[in-house]
Amino acid sequence: MAMTEQEILAGIGKIINEITGIPAAEVTPEKNFVDDLDIDSLSMVEIAVAAQDEFGVEIPDDQLKHLKTVKDVIGFIQG
Amino acid sequence: MSTDQVRVVVTGLGATTPLGGDVASTWSALLAGQSGVRTITEDWVDSVPVKFAAVAAVDPAEVLPRPEARRLDRAEQLALVAAREAWAHSGIEKVDPERLGVVVGSGIGGITTILAAYDTFKEKGWQRLSPYTVPMLMPNGPAGWIGIEVGARAGVHATVSACATGAESIGYGIEMIRSGRADVVVAGGTEAAIHPLNIGSFAAMRAMSTRNDDPQGASRPWDRGRDGFVLGEGAGIVVLESEEHARARGATVYAVAAGVGYSADAHHIAQPEPTGAGVMLAMRRALENAGLTGQDIGHVNAHATSTPAGDVVETIAIKEVIGGHPLVTATKSMTGHLLGGAGGIESVFTILALHERVVPGTINVEDLDDGIEVDLVLGEPRALPGGRVAAINNSFGFGGHDVAVAFTSI
Q1: A27-74: per-residue pLDDT in tens?
Q2: Helical spans, DSSP H, in B271-383
Q3: Closest residue of chain A to B128, computed from CA coordinates
Q4: Which of B407, B405, B410, B406 is nearest to B387 (CA)?
Q5: How far apart are CA B99 and CA B155, in angstroms?
Q6: Between 20 and 30 A from B236 (CA), which of B49, B61, B143, B145?
Q7: What are the chain A neighbours of B67 within 8 Å (beta carbons)?
Q8: Digit-coded pLDDT (tens) for B115-149
Q9: What is the reported pTM?
């Protein structure tokens, strides 16, 4: 039951909206979490934990710091 | 002796309480003699002997944007709601950040966060803890968030003195301005401690009313049938400002924050000292600090929590230090006891009483206890005279803290 890129993007958009209030529609693949979405490091931890629950994929801390854009997270979740 | 000091005035008020989500709704409910106490319906109520509390009338999590609410403890949410109201009320548009301070405390801190986070920790592990757990549980969290909100760089402080916290914060704020550290200070208290562990713990001290068949009649200061305090939650915040700063921007001034008196009982960790010596000392020092005499005081918002010990001895202390003439009221009869938030909302009430020239009545007193020789306002509100009138807000806390804040009318 592999999810499509669109399904993962929608899931990430929902999580980011819940945690930061940023409209899900603004969460597009090319967006950088820090530069474009102004998400701080504590919020990134919240997003990572929520993403783990949502997608069932563990994101270790040493991987998290390499996930700079929404597309990076989609790629990580897709394996 | 206070005439050569910087005069401090109150230019903004904010509150969210069991009676209303803002100052106006709270004040009108208070003057109408309404009780903010209600039966608790949560499933944990069967585990505790007290089945009621004074829950905030407006859930702060419903007022704040969800992304903001989820990273704030409830005490922080309440404080931020009240601080935003006070800040907007003050009309301040621009202030030098290095001349702006915050002093806001809570008696217990983020206790519901601590307990919920520990459940998460035990059940799911540390990885599932919110990264905001620490800023949510720390008792200086409310002050920190308000400081960020208004951009305060002169100093952000959080006093902790149990049920005297709110009053102590306002006193500290007055002193920050008088000592030249700030021109504007956002000050007050907050609390959100309605949780079965707290109710169980206060009940273990036999400190809480168990009048389960009559929750709205449970907070009855000075009544012979009183059997303990009623736990409440909420926040009360004021904007303090040097008179010079307030006048320069043409601000509306609601009262003069004339002075503060502190003392400590050095007697028992949780019981009031039976002669009222500490309470008397705090009020004497407040008068002295404010340059007032007992004759100047027209109103006292008493600490009076509805516990068997304490209520009457406070009136004896008032009679001794101030006299029998001031109109004395116990607004906790309607709001319940907001612990660290009490001194905040009760200072707001004291200021409004001076500004509106009316003292809210104490409700639920049906059988007045013996030994009370001050002029209690029971039932209907009573008017204060015109001209210059001063008032005192008393707040005392476990640990033996006694704080009296003095305000005068404009």
Answers
A1: 999 999 999 999 998 999 999 999 988 999 999 989 998 999 999 999
A2: 277-290, 311-321, 332-335, 342-356
A3: A49
A4: B410
A5: 9
A6: B49
A7: 18-21
A8: 999 999 999 999 899 999 999 999 999 999 999 99
A9: 0.95
